[in-house]
Design goal:
It is a single chain. This protein has about 210 residues and is α/β, with parallel strands linked by helices. It has two domains: about 35 residues, no CATH class; about 160 residues, SGNH hydrolase (Rossmann fold, 3-Layer(aba) Sandwich). Helices cover about 45% and strands about 10% of the residues. It has nine helices and five strands. It has a five-stranded parallel β-sheet, sandwiched between helices. Strand 4, helix 8 and strand 5 form a beta-alpha-beta unit. It is globular, with a radius of gyration of 19 Å.
């Protein structure tokens, strides 16, 4: 009888563990495992939605007015709740810094931008490809002539703190670093409303603030 109770409790605990691990709100343990590289995340190269988004951006880029603020980067950029005639979103879910660097010449709107907001690095860390994160971001910033705003990563983990230090150094004196530490969405990876509010507090996201 005692053995049955023990077995039942073990199964119950496993069930709760699976439920927590696979639920819509990703828990802290899963975040930590993912960022530690113990859960492999595939790159987005073969994701058809990425190709479709790039094509959509290609076709609409001529419509972006000179002086607009361009959002570049991964899903943190893509999910940004900023819209309007002075904002153009070029975010791509799953994007890494090397992919962003390779795409910069696709969109002439970047060359006539009034400001550029960059959110990148999460997937470099998650896919354990962060070795060249600093060099890639430095190259991205060197390519951009408009005032740049570089968004850090929100999770409070050792891997993320290290990545944020790299991003800060790459930003240097030539851009504005926005630290969203602690402003995490329920999934532990993306930005919360507070995180986006920190961006909006410093980046020019509306026509009026451009003078």
């Amino acid at each position: 009888m005692k053995g049955r109770i023990t077995a039942y409790l073990v199964l119950l605990a496993c069930g709760f563990g699976v439920l927590a691990f696979t639920s819509g709100g990703v828990n802290w343990a899963r975040d930590k495992l993912a960022y530690a590289g113990l859960i492999a995340q595939r790159g987005n190269e073969d994701d058809p939605s990425r190709a479709a988004a790039i094509l959509r951006y290609d076709r609409s880029d001529h419509l972006v007015p000179a002086g607009a603020t361009i959002l570049l980067g991964d899903s943190i950029a893509y999910k940004a709740p900023f819209a309007g005639p002075c904002v153009a979103n070029r975010g791509l879910g799953g994007e890494r810094s090397d992919q962003l660097l390779a795409n910069l010449d696709r969109w002439p709107s970047i060359d006539r931008a009034g400001a550029v907001v960059i959110a990148i690095g999460t997937n470099d860390v998650w896919q354990r490809r962060q070795e060249h994160l600093g060099a890639n971001v430095a190259a991205i910033l060197a390519r951009i002539e408009a005032p740049a705003f570089l968004v850090g990563l929100p999770a409070d983990l050792d891997e993320i703190r290290d990545a944020n230090a790299v991003l800060r150094r790459a930003c240097g004196d030539g851009c504005t670093f926005i630290d969203p530490t602690g402003a995490r969405a329920a999934d532990g990876i993306h930005l919360s409303a507070e995180g986006y509010a920190r961006i909006a507090a410093v980046a020019p996201l509306d026509c009026e603030r451009r003078g």
